[in-house]
Here is the input.
Amino acid sequence: MSTVPSLIDIKGIRDGLLVKLGDSAWPTLQVALIDAIDERRSFFTGARLALDVGGQVLHVAELVTLREMLSERGIFLWAVLSSSSATEQTAQNLGLATRISKPRPSQVQHAPDAVMDAIALWLPRTLRSGTLVEFPGHVTVMGDVNPGAEIVASGSIVVWGRLRGVVHAGAQGDLNAVVCALELTPTQLRIASEIAVSPKRKGKVQPEIARLKDGILVAEPWQV
Here is the structure.
């Protein structure tokens, strides 16, 4: 039986993924982490990863090796959290963050082993100009996405409000991703590699869903 679930705890946070390592020797933890990634390569590819190593004392060579292994898999290691001052200093010397903004409980989705591919980010607020949200999964916004705000998601994007900013669903190539909004008037909308700019609206505004049909981006009424 695999020991990975007990050694690796993965959560979705506002800035990407937070991976918390269990209590074991560093070589064992590193192998468990890489195995977990390789088992779900499509999920992790393109992710921004923060790593909580607990009290592990890690040196430059160990962190550099890990960062290279992650980079080879299309993963960007941007933060290392540790209760060890030596590890924290090493991470800082390598240009890695050692603190992350604490997410609100409603913005965090645990990723149990059985539903890893369904990870989602819940944002119970309006996204204002200058806000950038990048997430390796689905994103739901309970509010508006204002002009100047941007969402990039590897899954689908649902906006329970007015979508007037820039959105990119299926950012890792998922052709089945969709974008839904109560008012779909984005500055730019992209699904996978297809891009569309919202035309000027005529008539009554209604909820719409944008999806790819035969390689073409189309918007249709969204029954909510």
Notes: The CA atoms of residues 135 and 153 lie 5 Å apart. The domain at 119-221 is CATH 2.160.20.70 (Pectate Lyase C-like).
